[in-house]
Design goal:
316 residues; alpha/beta; 7-stranded parallel beta sheet; 13 strands; 17% strand; binds uridine-5'-diphosphate
Length: 316
Amino acid sequence: MRAVITGGAGFLGSHLCDLMIEKGWGILCLDNLATGSEANIAHLRENPRFEFKRHDVTKHIEVPGAVDAVFHFASPASPPDYLKLPIQTLKVGSLGTHNCLGLALAKKAKFFMASTSECYGDPDVSPQPESYWGHVNQVGPRGVYDEAKRFSEALTMAYHRYHGLDTRIVRIFNTYGPRMRLNDGRALPNFLYQALAGEPITVYGDGSQTRSFCYVSDLLDGIYRLFESNEHDPVNIGNPHEITIHEFAERVRALVGANVPIVFHPLPQDDPKQRCPDISKAKRILHWEPQVDLAEGLRRTYDYFRKKLAESNQAR
Ligand code: UDP
C-alpha cells in the first residue's frame, strides 16, 4: 500500500509519515518546504519505503504508479506563518486541495483532509461540536486560513457526494510536541523558547483566552482511527482539557524553572477567545480519547526544544 502525504516535511505531516511507515505503507512525501523542514524527515531518507519530492501542490501533481491514499496536510498552520503567507495559504487550501482530490480520484485512492478548529472561527458555542457552523471573519487576517480550510471541507464533501470518492475530514485542534519549529510563533514554541533563552514570556491580551492542547501522539492515534473508519463527515480530534493562555504560560515557566517575567502584548485581531473540542463523536465512533496529559506532553516537548536549542547554539 502506498500513500501520498502532502506537507509531509511539516510538524504533523512528518509524524504521519512515521506512523504510516510503521503501519507498513510506502510513502511519497510532497512538500515545498515553505514552512516544513527536511530535518523532520532526515531519519526516513534511507528507508526504501520512503520517497521525498520537493513540490508545490498548488501546481499539478504527477505521481507515476499506484496510490492507495492521499493525505492532504500541506499548509502554513501557525497564525504568524499564514499572516506572512496569506496568498499561499489560500492557494494550498483551494488549488492544492483540488489537485489532491483530483489525484485521489484518478488513482481511486482514499482521500484524507487535514482540517482545523479554525473552521469554528471565534466560536460563540463552547465546547465546539462538529455540528456547529462557526463564527469566522472571512475578511479578517485569519480568514485566509479559516476560509481555505472551510473551502477544502466543502470541496472534499462535493467529491465524496458527486464522484463517490472515499473521503475523511479531521478537524485538528491545537497540537504540540517535538518537531514544532522553535520560531513558528505559536504560543507553546514562543513560551518554551523564551523561558529557555531567559527572555520575558509574551502573553497576548490579558491571557484569559483559552485553548486546549493535544499531544502529537494522541492526535496521530485519532487520525489513524479516523482513516480506518467509515466516517465521511468531519470529526474533531483534540484534547478537551481547556486552559487559559496565562495559566499555560505559568505552566511552561514553572517547567523550565526560569526566573523570567510574563509580559502582556496586544491581542492579535480576531484571536479566538475560547477553544475546546467536543470529542463525544470521536469517543463514540473511533473509541478515541487523549492519553497524554499536559504535564507529560510538556516534559517531552521541553526535552526536544532543549536539545534543538543546544544544537543551534553549537552550530553558531
Ligand atoms: N499567544 C500568546 N503569546 C505568544 C503566542 C501566542 O499569548 O507569544 C496566544 C495567542 O494570542 C492565542 C493563543 O496564545 O490566544 C494560542 O495561539 P497560537 O498561535 O498557538 O495558536 P491559535 O490557537 O491562535 O491558532
